[in-house]
């Protein structure tokens, strides 16, 4: 179980974006996180992935504090704009090789998402949908226990969006990975998630 408890976070000296927020994600579950633009969904995802240290509160992964876990990250975050997450000077084959744990073979999930013809191309030589599939594969090859998908299909057309989510749901079924689908699109979440939770997810906030 991924458990974020009493999370407080802000950017610099700005207002509190998270103020006592709680969120849980179980293995094998696709949970939707809905909220309007700017409410703090991405901030929460970054805290749960260990990329933004909360001012207060804890993130626990299967019983251990996230900060204490060494080795490959058990919680992977995938973002909306794959081109920003990839080195533009690396071909796709290298992007995936660098992510894959040492000695690991290409996985089934990777093969489903990525075509070998793309390996010799640079990120700018793929379409947005293809690049997001690579980005997702790159997170999945590390075999995370939990995947936080932050608006991963927001810039894709409906068919490509459906395909991406069908790949992800297959992976969830095979590996019992927990997925948090973060979006401001209620209809998308209704289609892909087992359950949808809404911001603010907080106890009555105690500010200050
Ligand atoms: N690096 C940053 N520095 C300062 N403020 C930030 C930073 N990142 C986000 N914010 C602010 O924190 C608030 C929450 O942002 P966040 O990106 O978490 O919201 P969101 O719900 O994911 O929004 P969206 O759906 O538009 O992506 C916003 O008011 C945003 O302007």
TrEMBL record:
<dbReference type="InterPro" id="IPR027417">
    <property type="entry name" value="P-loop_NTPase"/>
</dbReference>
<keyword id="KW-0547">Nucleotide-binding</keyword>
<dbReference type="InterPro" id="IPR003593">
    <property type="entry name" value="AAA+_ATPase"/>
</dbReference>
<dbReference type="GO" id="GO:0005524">
    <property type="term" value="F:ATP binding"/>
</dbReference>
<dbReference type="Pfam" id="PF00005">
    <property type="entry name" value="ABC_tran"/>
</dbReference>
<dbReference type="InterPro" id="IPR003439">
    <property type="entry name" value="ABC_transporter-like_ATP-bd"/>
</dbReference>
<protein>
    <submittedName>
        <fullName>ATP-binding cassette domain-containing protein</fullName>
    </submittedName>
</protein>
<keyword id="KW-0067">ATP-binding</keyword>
<dbReference type="InterPro" id="IPR050319">
    <property type="entry name" value="ABC_transp_ATP-bind"/>
</dbReference>
<comment type="similarity">
    <text>Belongs to the ABC transporter superfamily.</text>
</comment>
<dbReference type="InterPro" id="IPR017871">
    <property type="entry name" value="ABC_transporter-like_CS"/>
</dbReference>
<feature type="domain" description="ABC transporter">
    <location>
        <begin position="2"/>
        <end position="208"/>
    </location>
</feature>
<keyword id="KW-0813">Transport</keyword>
<dbReference type="GO" id="GO:0016887">
    <property type="term" value="F:ATP hydrolysis activity"/>
</dbReference>
<dbReference type="GO" id="GO:0055085">
    <property type="term" value="P:transmembrane transport"/>
</dbReference>
């Amino acid at each position: 179980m991924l458990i974020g408890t009493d999370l407080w976070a802000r950017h610099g000296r700005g207002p509190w974006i998270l103020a006592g927020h709680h969120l849980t994600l179980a293995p094998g579950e696709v949970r939707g996180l809905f909220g309007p633009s700017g409410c703090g969904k991405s901030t929460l995802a970054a805290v749960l992935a260990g990329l933004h240290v909360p001012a207060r509160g804890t993130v626990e992964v299967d019983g251990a504090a996230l900060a204490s876990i060494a080795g490959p990250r058990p919680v992977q975050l995938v973002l909306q704009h794959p081109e920003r997450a990839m080195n533009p000077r690396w071909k796709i084959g290298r992007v995936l090789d660098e992510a894959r744990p040492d000695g690991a073979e290409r996985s089934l999930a990777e093969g489903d998402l990525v075509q070998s013809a793309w390996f010799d191309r640079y990120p700018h030589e793929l379409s947005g949908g293809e690049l997001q599939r690579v980005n997702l594969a790159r997170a999945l090859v590390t075999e995370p226990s939990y995947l936080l998908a932050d608006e991963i299909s927001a810039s894709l057309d409906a068919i490509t969006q459906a395909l991406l989510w069908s790949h992800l749901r297959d992976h969830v079924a095979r590996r019992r990975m927990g997925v948090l689908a973060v979006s401001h699109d209620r209809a998308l979440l209704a289609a892909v998630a087992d359950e949808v939770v809404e911001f603010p997810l907080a106890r009555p906030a105690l500010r200050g």
